[in-house]
């Protein structure tokens, strides 16, 4: 286990879990066991574990954590999570260092085995923030070279597709692999002197005696299931037929296979090299406990208008994840004692655009500027909040604030209200709509619904979970403690199974949770933690919030390279989340 701390002369700390920045005091070698309880008083870790935090500490105070024998690495700034926001913050900090002739050591800690390995997103990329961060990105060979050539929007019924006016306005945008873009950003950061450490999962936040965050610690590696120390202990894209491939072709759909009370839709993004990213969005505030997002996606691909686009192709990758998508209504005050929130953690996704990378990157840049001013000029980190509200992020999310809540009234009322917002009011409505209840509270009892009979996979366009899981390149050391914990082990059998028909087995896209009969024939919940795709939907959708998702050993989990495809949105009144499930197809050579 390693303890990453910052050692700047002014001893300011910025940690950032899952794309986060840390500044920490040099006086941090003395540790005690109460850091987790102390830090929880000040902020709540996003349930999906994604996004960015910036934290800072004060000199002269000790950092506390649960053990004192950890190896310590000192940096001025530590960024936890090599995502778009975190890497943008790292790059911006180093750029400011060059401009002001200041030397700050910057480190990025990433739980994936390599940068980009846990980045999963269907992405039509708006380069606005990148234009500001790296103005000559084209000359620097950024993996952004497929401009959007057409923008289509369909309403699906069970057997037909109706074309609607496209509201997305993707002129000037690009179809990209976010995983590849993040790898490129990582290279640019290293060229500027940023140190990146993949395979390190930040599991503990360190704070001083004043309850101010001062650093992070990584989890133990080489721990067996029984808790003993092992010898190594230490502190979907599709390939489709060439004649079907249209680089830059973008398609979004609404409607079938989802019912009219469940928000969601699909996307088709034609990338380069005959690759197509396909995905389904399913709001996790769905009511029917028998709904299975994975099976809904398999059913979607059988639609008469969709199946011909995929037949003859080959699935290359599959995956799933969660993202915050609460938008303007869900943005929290991002500065707290010892830190600040950036990126997806703050819910900067623009839902009607279906884009959040550009806003996440911009938030990281703004936070980096505020942190630099705090370290070098003694200004307050609260400037980040002021700069955020005066930036184009705030204006963009404000004008888009009512689109997602409009669908609380159903599919067709949502379409009508969205049309009024987009074409008539243009985001200037005098009313701000609110989100509904949290996702886990939206689930209704099974007795109110009938089971959904999903078709069996045909092995052509639809597939079973084990086949898809294999395509995610997911890998965990089987001999380690489970990173999935039940707060009350009796809840699955006493509550979830009789009342909700065991929804864990359906909302998880990787068959991590299964009800298996014991020797007496009674069903018991079995957790297959090695299957986990790190989507974290379980900690969000579980009706009793009984599942706690923690980080496994660093380097474990999926291994995405070009990934993006299927996705579900997860809604919470204060923090809405999105889960992406993706496949990649590549065009078959003619």
UniProtKB/TrEMBL annotation:
SUPFAM superfamilies from the UniProt entry: 4Fe-4S ferredoxins, FAD-linked reductases, C-terminal domain, FAD/NAD(P)-binding domain
Report the subcellular localization. Mitochondrion inner membrane
Domain ETF-QO/FixX C-terminal: from-to ranges:
459-561
Molecular function in Gene Ontology = 4 iron, 4 sulfur cluster binding; electron-transferring-flavoprotein dehydrogenase activity; metal ion binding
Recorded coiled-coil stretches: none
Q: Report the cofactors.
A: FAD; [4Fe-4S] cluster
Keyword Metal-binding on entry: yes
Q: Which domain of life is it from?
A: Eukaryota
What does the cofactor field's note say?
Answer: Binds 1 [4Fe-4S] cluster.
Q: Name one GO cellular component term.
A: mitochondrial inner membrane
Q: Which UniProt keywords apply?
A: Electron transport, FAD, Flavoprotein, Iron, Iron-sulfur, Membrane, Metal-binding, Mitochondrion, Mitochondrion inner membrane, Oxidoreductase, Transit peptide, Transport, Ubiquinone
- Which top EC class is named for this enzyme in its record? oxidoreductase
Q: Which Pfam families match?
A: ETFQO_UQ-bd, Fer4_ETF_QO, NAD_binding_8
Q: Which reaction is catalysed here?
A: a ubiquinone + reduced [electron-transfer flavoprotein] = a ubiquinol + oxidized [electron-transfer flavoprotein] + H(+)
Domain ETF-QO/FixC ubiquinone-binding spans what residues? Answer: 236-323
**Family label:** Belongs to the ETF-QO/FixC family.
- PANTHER family assigned: ELECTRON TRANSFER FLAVOPROTEIN-UBIQUINONE OXIDOREDUCTASE (PTHR10617), ELECTRON TRANSFER FLAVOPROTEIN-UBIQUINONE OXIDOREDUCTASE, MITOCHONDRIAL (PTHR10617:SF107)
Describe the function of this protein.
Accepts electrons from ETF and reduces ubiquinone.
What this protein is called in its record is Electron transfer flavoprotein-ubiquinone oxidoreductase
Specify the species: Solanum commersonii (Commerson's wild potato)
